Amino acid sequence: DGTVGQGGHAHAFLQRALPDGRLLGIDRDTSNLAIAKERLAEFGDNVILVQDSFANAKTHAYAHKFTSVNAVLLDLGFSSAHVDDPERGFSFALDGPLDMRYDQTQELSAEQIVNTWSEDELARIIRMYGEDRNARRIAKAIVEQRAQSPIGRTTELADCIESRVRRTGKIHPATKTFQALRIVINDELGELERALPELVELLAPSGRIAVISFHSLEDRIIKQFFKADPNLKVITKRPITASQEELKQNPRSRSAKLRIAQKN
After folding, report:
1. How many CB atoms lie within 10 A of CB 112?
2. Which of 56, 128, 191, 240 would be a feasible disulfide site paired with 258, CB 3.0-4.6 Å?
3. Measured between alpha carbons, how far is 155 from 163 in angstroms, rounded to an integer?
4. pTM for this structure?
């Protein structure tokens, strides 16, 4: 499990894999790993937890003798724990520091980007990773705002954007900018592109890789990789999405797309 989080998927895996199955769980977030360690304690030595990015999964897999695995899972993006904790700075709806780092030991944060990158750089990442046609207007608003005083809070950034871009429907105009910042800070797309070939290499014949994505940029990378890799057979011709029943229980699953491939 390359994104073990607080151990929900890992717990389900281990229940089905016992008595002989083992699981390697990787996550960048030390606070999530602490919860996962407690949640998965009942499985003892059948589970190994590592603090790192799944882009480095191959190194840890070899170190712990996971060299021919039956299943790989990636559940991309941020977790509910990230969104619901204002101190992590992922949500524009909750006032908190502009952070957005999964690994809080790394240097680059949202506050640094917002307050130091040029208008052109800001416009580029908001357009590319937020797919926002208002990217230039938002970048200009940020630069003008920070010239008066640094932007250090999530709500300050959200208000700055909303002052220049009109809200349409239920979608807050800061949504795509926050997505873009999160992707850049955590190098989400780069890590995914680097990780996929190595994760497939770790699979045993007939082993499966499953990836859950939450926006089109991720989904496109996964779809194209699965289709292009000669070692893989695509199991999901179309991505699996949440049922109506699941949407009622978990509205945040509305944008989730699951794609699965099997190694030849």
Report:
1. 12
2. 240
3. 12
4. 0.93
Q: Angle CA(41)–CA(49)–CA(7) in degrees, nearest 5?
A: 60
| pLDDT (0 to 100) of residue 57 | 97
81: left (phi over 0), alpha (psi -120 to 50) or beta: alpha
Spacing of C-alpha 96 from chain mean position? 20
Three-state DSSP at 263 gives strand
Q: Write out the DSSP string of 182-248.
A: HHHHTTHHHHHHHHHHHHHHHEEEEEEEEEEE-SHHHHHHHHHHHHH-TTEEES-SS-B---HHHHH
Bridge partners (DSSP) of residue 208 are 71, 262
- Whole-number pLDDT of residue 258: 98
Kindly state the tokens that stand for 69.
């695995």
pLDDT of residue 93: 92
DSSP 8-state symbol, 153:
B
Residue 44: name the closest of 67, 22, 71 by CA: 22
Each residue's pLDDT tens digit, 166-220: 888 888 999 999 999 999 999 999 999 999 999 999 999 999 999 999 999 999 9
The residue to which tokens 């899972």 are assigned: 73
For the residues of 119-140, what is the DSSP string, one character each?
Answer: HHHHHHHHHHHH--TTHHHHHH
**Sheet of 203-213, strands arranged across:** 69-75, 203-213, 257-263, 232-234
Distances (CA, A) of 234 to 164, 215, 227: 44, 20, 7
Rg of the chain over all Cα atoms, to the nearest angstrom = 19
CA distance 101 to 90: 8
Residue type (1 letter), 118: S
Place of tokens 């592109």: 193
